[in-house]
Amino acid sequence: MTDAPKARVLLPDDEDWLSLFMGMEEPLLMQLALNARADQEGDEEVWELPPDLDGVGAHEAWGRLFQALPEPLRHTGTNIGRSEPNRDRPAGSYALYAPDGWEHTALYPADVDPRDVAAVAAVLAHFRKALDGTDRTQLGDFLQQMADDWADPGREGNDRQMVEDFLRGLSVWQLPHQPDVDVLLEAVTVAGPGGETPERIVLTPPQEDAYQSFIRRVSAAVAGNSPFDYALHRFANS
Question: Angle 30-40/55-68 helices, nearest 10 degrees?
């Protein structure tokens, strides 16, 4: 992939979101990439998927998004669910406080190639077609099989919930860039690439207002009830 201008986004050190983001790779993106490679090698035991679904490219794009995460977020994401998590404080970590001393979820700037977000979102568009029955390949069967394979013991897999979780993992990367982001980027830019991160950052009252606005949008996206993803959320629960 040729170099392209990066977009600076703001990402929360939030286990709920990072768990969803990490869960996008398995069982979906990695299995799509494995199926695509097997198909390219002439293996006949593969799923017949849409020819314009780039499973390998989407998995590689997800990997670049993971690498774009600041080190504290990669640390959080890779330690979720571990029986013995690494509790060492990663480089670049800091504590974020409201003016009244309340500790907030830390926010970190990240530079990302918008094409990587678009490549993963393109896969989501295929998933939606499979769920609504308009895809004419085996993608719907693939989704159900992945859901069954990864379901808790004794429970039937829920392909729609799996796709909704995929959407929610993607959603924070796709949040619209509103003025609250600019205010917060100025506040926490020292925690971003190339900055020497202090141990704590205390927001000013205007920055606190921006934080509350931004975190409401993050929470809605992660919960699956933001206007951006309402259509799939309603479909997945019908």
Answer: 140
